From TrEMBL:
Involved in the early to middle stages of 60S ribosomal subunit biogenesis. Required for the biogenesis of box C/D snoRNAs such U3, U8 and U14 snoRNAs. Part of the small subunit (SSU) processome, first precursor of the small eukaryotic ribosomal subunit. During the assembly of the SSU processome in the nucleolus, many ribosome biogenesis factors, an RNA chaperone and ribosomal proteins associate with the nascent pre-rRNA and work in concert to generate RNA folding, modifications, rearrangements and cleavage as well as targeted degradation of pre-ribosomal RNA by the RNA exosome. One of its GO terms (molecular function) is snoRNA binding. The keyword Transmembrane helix does not apply. Keywords: Nucleus, Ribosome biogenesis. It is found in: Nucleus, Nucleolus. It comes from the Eukaryota. InterPro entries: Nop56/Nop58 (IPR045056), Nop_C (IPR042239), Nop_dom (IPR002687), Nop_dom_sf (IPR036070), NOSIC (IPR012976). This is Nucleolar protein 56.
Length: 469
């Protein structure tokens, strides 16, 4: 009923203050009432408005400038993708698809391990038929067959290894005595090698099944903790797998959850007008097995009701906890005791009030832990960024220092070159000092000296001329 901010902004900008009484065509009556309440704009709804809106949507690319039919189709496709993406849960830890696949694989592994174990029994039974009665369990039989090999080689020394596998000294002694007086046929070493390799494969499959069961338990505690606490991990996972998802299971009524998995018997009963089934997959729960024959239908109906509540709590709660599942399990136990002893159980309202209080405490604790983890993660991220920034600064400083050192080195080289040049110029006159002196001797005399030297010669010539005269 609250008007969207974008629509309010659009109407405030589109309509001037004086034209608030303009009739505005809106396809939805609730939207029109909200616009009238918030902005005081009278809106008209009806069949004519719906046709007008349909025409606007049809010819929208022609009415808006710059909008082509191709871009409008792209916008519609993007809107569809974003809507579908919003419907998908992005929480990786609460994905029920993994539960569906793991429970399907677990059921398939049970069938395959059973078939392969029977094959090992028949194959090794030709050589040691008495072992089948002593060790009835499939995986243990495969381990014992792999350990024994040829029964004629079994001795007192291998008794300790047998006790470790069988975990019973009496059984190990019985196997040793049976091997000495066995009626089985002899077997070749090649056949024994094949039997041992096949037994090894069956053992590895059974070990993988244990690991897969642990994985399923951990996923159920994350995705549907209340349902797994109420009815068990395997039965809860089968219910989710049969419904298709946890959301679909939460949408089912209790009457559907009660007979989920017994659809074939239900339709056969409807067709033949016989008795409809009382339970489906929830029959594998321990509660129905513990109830008396006359109370099985009642307890199955009650258990289906509680399963529906638990699945809805798991599906639509932000922080899933197992508190509600534990309380619902206590209620089913009390109802079982009521059918047997007549002791009245607690009321549902009282139990749910206690569960809400405990769940709030647990949620607060979980949120506190998440905040701590988030703070630690932010601190680690901050430290990492600081370390990266410090490393970047160090590399920048190192590069600056290297450039400065290169500049200083270049300057020093230039100074050295300049110093070497005058030294060379000074060293050259020292080396060629003799030559310079000789050159100085050969240099012409100055004019005054020339005059002094020339004057006596001229006087002598003049005297000679005078004598001649």
């Amino acid at each position: 009923g609250v008007l969207h901010e974008d629509l309010r902004l659009l109407l405030d900008t589109a309509l001037p203050p004086k034209r608030k009484k303009v009739l505005l065509g809106v396809g939805d009556a609730k939207m029109g009432a909200a616009v009238l309440e918030e902005l005081g704009v009278q809106c008209q709804t009806g069949g004519v408005v719906a046709e007008l809106m349909r025409g606007i949507r049809l010819h929208f690319p022609a009415l808006v400038r710059g909008l082509t039919a191709q871009s409008a189709a792209k916008a519609q496709l993007g809107l569809g993708h974003s809507y579908s993406r919003a419907k998908v849960k992005f929480n990786v830890h609460r994905v029920d698809n993994m539960i569906i696949q793991s429970i399907s694989l677990l059921d398939q592994l049970d069938k395959d391990i059973n078939t392969f174990s029977m094959r090992v029994r028949e194959w090794y039974g030709y050589h040691f038929p008495e072992l089948i009665k002593i060790v009835p369990e499939n995986s243990m039989y495969c381990r014992v067959a792999k350990f024994i090999g040829n029964r004629r080689e079994l001795s007192e020394e291998s008794l300790e290894g047998l006790e470790e596998i069988v975990m019973d000294s009496a059984k190990a002694q019985a196997i040793l005595e049976a091997s000495r007086s066995s009626m089985g046929m002899d077997i070749s070493p090649l056949d024994l090698i094949n039997i041992e390799s096949f037994s090894r494969r069956v053992i590895s499959l059974s070990e993988y099944r244990k690991g897969l069961q642990e994985y399923l338990r951990s996923k159920m505690s994350q995705v549907a903790p209340s349902l797994s606490a109420l009815i068990g991990e395997v039965v809860g996972a089968r219910l989710i797998s049969h419904a298709g998802s946890l959301t679909n299971l939460a949408k089912y009524p209790a009457s559907t959850v009660q007979i989920l998995g017994a659809e074939k018997a239900l339709f056969r009963a409807l067709k033949t007008r016989g008795n409809t089934p009382k339970y489906g997959l929830i029959f594998h729960s321990t509660f129905i097995g513990r109830a008396a024959a006359k109370n099985k239908g009642r307890i199955s109906r009650y258990l289906a009701n509680k399963c529906t509540i638990a699945s809805r709590i798991d599906c639509f709660s932000e922080v899933p906890t197992s508190v509600f599942g534990d309380k619902l399990r206590e209620q089913v136990e009390e109802r079982l005791a009521f059918y047997e002893t007549g002791e009245p159980p607690r009321k549902n309202l009282e139990v749910m009030k206690e569960a809400v209080v405990e769940a709030n405490e647990v949620v607060a604790e979980v949120k506190r832990r998440q905040e701590k983890k988030e703070k630690k993660r932010k601190k680690r991220e901050k430290r990492r960024l600081e370390a990266l920034a410090a490393a970047a600064e160090e590399t920048a400083e190192n590069s600056v220092m290297e450039t400065e050192e290169n500049d200083v080195g270049a300057k020093k080289k230039k100074k050295k070159k300049k110093q070497q040049q005058p030294e060379e110029s000074e060293a050259e006159p020292e080396e060629n000092g003799v030559e310079e002196e000789e050159e100085e001797e050969e240099e012409p005399l100055p004019k005054k000296k020339r005059k002094i030297l020339v004057e006596p010669e001229q006087q002598e010539e003049e005297e000679k001329k005078k004598k001649k005269k």
